[in-house]
Each structure stands twice: as structure tokens, then as C-alpha cells.
Specification:
mainly alpha; about 60% helix
């Protein structure tokens, strides 16, 4: 089964998480933030999966 993911919302949420991490004393999150801003959509989804993000929230439709 394949899904169409709302990568714009995923990218926005991941950026918010990294900004929050930076504000909580994890300055290296700035590097991750830069990555998230520039990753192609497919790589962003892969990164989210590697980081344990529940992608069900971002499913637009099933194809």
C-alpha cells in the first residue's frame, strides 16, 4: 500500500520540533533544522521515519 503524505505539514512540524529542541538547550538541532528545510520530499519522509514520527497524521490519501 502506498500513501500520499502532506510533506508541507510534515516539514513544518519537524521544523517546529527542531526549533523547540534548540530553545531547550540542544544547539546541534540547528543542523537538523537546516537539513529539514532543504531535503527533497522523499528524503524528508525517510528522515521522519528514522526519527520515529508517526506518519499516519500526515496521510492525505491512499493510492
Amino acid at each position: 500500500m502506498e500513501y500520499i503524505i502532506d510533506v508541507d505539514e510534515l516539514r513544518r512540524d519537524m521544523k517546529e520540533e527542531y526549533v523547540a529542541a534548540m530553545c531547550c538547550g540542544f544547539p546541534m538541532a540547528a543542523c537538523d533544522l537546516t537539513d529539514v528545510e532543504h531535503l527533497p520530499d522523499r528524503e524528508l519522509v525517510e528522515l521522519a521515519q528514522e526519527n520515529g514520527v508517526d506518519l499516519r497524521k500526515y496521510i492525505i490519501c491512499q493510492i
